[in-house]
Structures are given as structure tokens and as C-alpha cells.
Description:
The chain is an alpha/beta fold. 36% of the residues lie in helices and 18% in strands.
Amino acid sequence: MFRGYVQIYTGNGKGKTTAAVGQAVRAIGRGFRVFFAQFIKSKETGELIAFKSFGDLIVFKQYGKGFVFGKPTTEDIKAAREGFDEVTAAVLSGEYQIVVLDEINAAVSSRLIESAALIALIRNKPANVELILTGRAAADEVIAAADLVTECKEIKHYYNSAVAAREGIEF
Ligand code: ATP
Ligand code: MG
């Protein structure tokens, strides 16, 4: 039987969401079903459009209204909590072998979701579900509960040269 682990992609460099998208595509290629949840963000992205061509092998959901600056509003918190409940149901449903929580680390560091809730999800996940968590500044206690942790470290990034996010490359 497929044995699922817990992966984290964190750090300040590019590559976290694209790593999760890449894992999702690879898994779909092998016939796995994927639940791809994106916290905080609400933007149409290339991956959202591309995933539609995979039919019911993937479910993509967004839970948020955009970036959270400073103190989160009650709406930010409500969207994140509803998202977390849906993701928990997806993890426990047995319908998905891969569950991605994109930007969940940002949801934790913005205090939309408690790290204890995320750790409980990790502990309670069925053995045959792979969890993939992304976002900057993963909490130490979440890192401790994961099996694979990769830091995307910025060596150089063109947004420091005023290159804005580009369609097809960043979104
Ligand atoms: P990718 O989706 O390309 O893999 P990522 O998931 O590693 O990137 P995030 O931290 O989620 O990166 O950032 C999402 C997007 O926000 C980036 O692609 C970029 O467009 C924008 N961004 C991130 N940091 C900065 C910054 N310091 N200045 C300007 N834009 C930024
Ligand atoms: Mg990202």
C-alpha cells in the first residue's frame, strides 16, 4: 500500500508552490487523486487553469482574499478556518492520496490557523495520505512533525530588480 509522508517547502526563495504543483502533476500521472488547497491567496493562476484539464483527478480550492497584512480580519480568519475544515475532511475521506496545503505556513504565521491544529492534522492523517505544506517561515514545531523539509533559499531574485510577478512564470 502507498505510504504517505509529510513534506514541507519553506524559505524565502522561489520554488515552494511550484514544488507542490510539480508533485501534484507527478502524482496525477500515476493515477493518484489530489486535493490542492491554497490558503490566503485568491488569484487565478496558471496551475488552477492547467489543473482543470486533469478532470476529477484533482480538486483545487482557494480559501482567502489575498495577502494578510498586520492583524487578520475576522473574514480572513473565517476563510482560513473553513478551508482548514474542508482540508481536514479531504484528508480523512480516503478519496485523495495527495493533499496540498499551499501557503499554510503563512496562514499559521499570520495567526489564521494555530500550529497545534496543523500538527493534529499531521498526527491524525491516514497512513496512505501524503501531506504537502508550503509557505515561508514554517513553524519549528510543524517542521519537527514533518518527514521531509526543504528550504527554498533566495540567492538572487529578480523582484529585487523590480521585475514584477509574471503570468505563466509566477502565476
Ligand atoms: P512559486 O509560486 O514561483 O514557486 P513561491 O511559492 O516560492 O513561488 P511565495 O512566497 O509563495 O513564493 O510568493 C508568491 C509570489 O509572491 C511570488 O511568486 C512573487 O510573485 C511574489 N513575491 C514574493 N516575495 C516577494 C517580494 N519580496 N517582492 C515582490 N514580490 C514577491
Ligand atoms: Mg507560494
